[in-house]
Design brief:
Blueprint (H helix, E strand, L loop, with lengths): L7 E5 L5 H10 L14 E6 L2 E11 L2 E9 L8 H15 L4 E6 L3 H5 L4 E2 L7 H4 L2 H6 L5 E6 L7
Parallel strand pairs: 4-5
Antiparallel strand pairs: 1-2, 2-3, 3-4, 5-7, 6-7
The chain binds coenzyme A.
């Protein structure tokens, strides 16, 4: 008989998750030096007690920088990345965030399918433009995207 895949659980990130999140981000060549400063706005996905995915945001007033989306290589393509974006969006909306911004070099098509649209860098609010990710951590070639969280229904 075929064995069911162990369930994935979602939870707010805790201090004990910093090390496994760092390992996932490092493996994916994503910035990992400063995410722990924003741990209060991070979620993790776990399977059998092991962290297999993460995502978070940095809040700047009504705007937030979505960052550090990562799924364990062996689980990619199974919908976990999409579920992490959905969960974070719901949490951010409940906290009054009105618009998400992000920078990506690898996942433009993934985010485009989830309601994000390209956003010219000069139009980005000052708080988001002042983040480390915008200033030093992401290459200038990274695409900036945004999504309005207030719209009743997003594609
Ligand atoms: C980007 C990332 C988080 C997506 O996670 P995921 O769990 O693979 O995402 P999903 O399965 O929800 O969606 C992936 C999409 O790619 C498709 N896909 C097909 N095969 C795939 C594969 N082998 N690997 C990844 N995606 C695949 C899926 O069908 C899905 O398409 P859809 O958008 O039409 O549904 C993951 O690839 C990752 O960790 N990448 C490295 C880190 C990174 O680039 N993060 C983004 C930083 S901005």
């Amino acid at each position: 008989m075929k064995r069911l895949a162990p369930a994935i659980e979602f939870s707010a990130a805790a201090q004990k998750d910093v090390r496994p999140i760092t390992a996932l981000l490092r493996e994916a060549s994503l910035p990992h030096g400063d995410f722990a400063d924003h741990l209060e706005h991070f979620l993790v996905a776990s399977q059998e007690g092991k962290v297999v995915g993460a995502i978070g945001f940095e809040r700047h007033g009504a705007d937030a920088l979505l960052r550090s989306l990562v799924v364990s290589p062996g689980l990619r393509g199974g919908g976990l990345g999409g579920r992490l974006v959905e969960q974070l969006t719901a949490a951010a909306r409940a906290q009054g965030v009105k618009r998400f911004y992000l920078l990506t070099t690898t996942a433009e098509a993934f985010f485009a399918k989830r309601g994000f649209r390209p956003s010219a860098r000069p139009t980005v609010p000052a708080g988001i433009a002042a983040t480390k990710e915008f200033n030093s951590l992401c290459p200038v070639s990274a695409v900036c995207m945004s999504r309005n969280l207030e719209a009743a229904r997003q594609p």
